[in-house]
Design brief:
heterodimer, A: 205 residues, mainly alpha, 8 helices, 2 strands, 71% helix, globular, B: 294 residues, alpha+beta, Sufe protein. Chain: A, 2 domains, two-stranded parallel sheet, 42% helix, Ion_transpt_RnfG/RsxG (chain B), electron transport (chain B), transmembrane helix (chain B), transport (chain B)
Chain lengths: 205, 294
Amino acid sequence: MANDKTSMQLISRGILSENPIFKLALSMCPAVGISTTVINGLMLGVAVLFVQVFSSVTISLFKNKIHPRIRIPTYTLTIATWVTVIDLALAAYLPDAYARMGIFVKLIVAFAIITMRLEMFACKESVNDSFWDGLGMGLGFMVGMVVIGFVRELLGSGAIFGYDVLGFKPLLFFILPSAGFFVVGLMMAFFNWIELAYKRTKGKI
Amino acid sequence: MKDILTIIFRLTVTCILAAMVMGSAFIITNKAKKHNEHVNEQKVRYALLGYSAAQPIPDSMALHEMYRYVVTDKESQAIGYLLPGKEGFIFLTLDMEGKVIDNKPVDIAESAVLEKDLRDKVVQEIAGAGRSVTFADQTIVVTNNGERVAYLLDGKFTGFKTFIGVMLAVDPKFSILGLEILEHEEDPGLGAEIERDYFRNQFKGKTFDQLKDLDVVKEPLPDEYFQALEGNIAAADAAEILAKYGDRDIYALTGATISSRYVNTGVKGIVKKFAYRLNILDTALADQKIKAAF
C-alpha cells in the first residue's frame, strides 16, 4: 500500500478526519485523567507529539530490518526508549510541570495510538511520510487534549491557563475524572456534527 | 532454528541501540537534574528556617556544611568530621570517648565539597591507607553574624514500608523549628499523610525536654488545632491555639499509627543523637583551639 497523500493531507488527517481522541477514540485514559487544565493537556500533548514523531521515524527507518515475528516487542522498545528520553528531559528542564504529570508521561509507553500508527503506517511507508503522519497524529492528540482541557478548566474552575477569568466556579463536577467522559463524548458529537455539516455544504451527501 | 537466532540477534541489537539512546539522554540531562535537586534542597532549607522567595535570607546569615564520617581501621572505630574552618576545611578525627586522634587541614574547594564522590575521595586520602571511611550524615550549621542560630539535620529512619528521609531544623537549644519529609513510600491516603502540614507542624516548637519523652496518642485531632496547623486561620489566632496545644503529644494519623510512631521515634532519635554528638564535638573544638567557621 503506497501512500498517495501529501504532507499537508497527512497532517490534516491526523487533526481532523482521523483525530486520535475524537474519531479513533484511542488513548482515552489520559484524555480523561489529566486534561483538567489547558496547561496539563498541552504538556502531555507535546510529550506524545515528540514520542509519536520520533517512534514513527525510527520504525520507518528500520522497517526492513524488523523481523515480522517480533515487530510488537520492537515497537514497544522503541516507544519506551523515546518515552524515557522525554521523561528525563522534562524532569530535568521543567521540574514543576513534571511533578504534576510525571506519572502520565511514563504511561505514554502504553498509549494505543502510538503503537497503532507504527503498525498501520510507519512500518510500511517512507521515512518522510511517516514523519508527517506522526506529526499529524501527535498534533491531533495535542489539539484534542487542549480543547478538552479548555472546556474542563473553564467550566470546572472558571479559569484559563490558571488565570481566573469568570470569577466563580460554574460546575466543580468538570474537574472530576468522570466529567472527562462527558466532555469527550460531547466533543465527539460536535466533531461529527461539523463534519456532516461540511459534507452537506459540499453536496457530498 | 534459524528464525530464533535472527530474532535473538535483532532483539539484542534493538536493546543495545535503545540503551545507547537512553544512556546519552541520561548523561545530557543529568547536570540539569542535579541542579534542580540542589535548588530544591536550598528551597527546603530556607523554608525550614522560615524564609521564602518573598522573604529572602539576610546576608548576615551563612550556612556551613559539616560532614560526619565513620573511620574504621583494623582494631577500632572513630568518628571523622569534615568541617569548614576559618581558612579552608579541617578533618577532625575523634575516638569513641571523644578524644582527638588527629586534626588535619584539608585542601578542597568549596564547590568540590558539595560533590559526594569528590568529597569521599579526598576524605579517604586524608584518613590514609589502612583506614576506611564511610559517609554517615551531614549537618548544616546556620549562623547569623557569627552566632549560631539553627542547625539543619538530615536524617533517615525506617518507616512502615521503606525509609523515610527527613530534614529537621533545630535551634541551638535543640527545640524543633521545623520538620520536612523529603522522601517516603508510605501508603497514599494513610501513611503518606505524614507529609501534610497538620502532622509535620505538630513537631514545631517542641523543646528538647518535651521531645525526650514525646509520645504518639491515638486520639482524634481537635478541629481548631487542625485548622491552626494547616494555616487556615489568621496568624495571631493560630499562635494562640498552637500555644494551647503546644505541650501535647503527637496526635497519630488516622489509620497510620505505625507511620506516626516511626516518625516520632525517628525525629527524637535524630535530635537526641545530634545533641550528644555536638556536645562532644564542641568540647573537642574548644580543647584543640580549632577555629571553626561557625
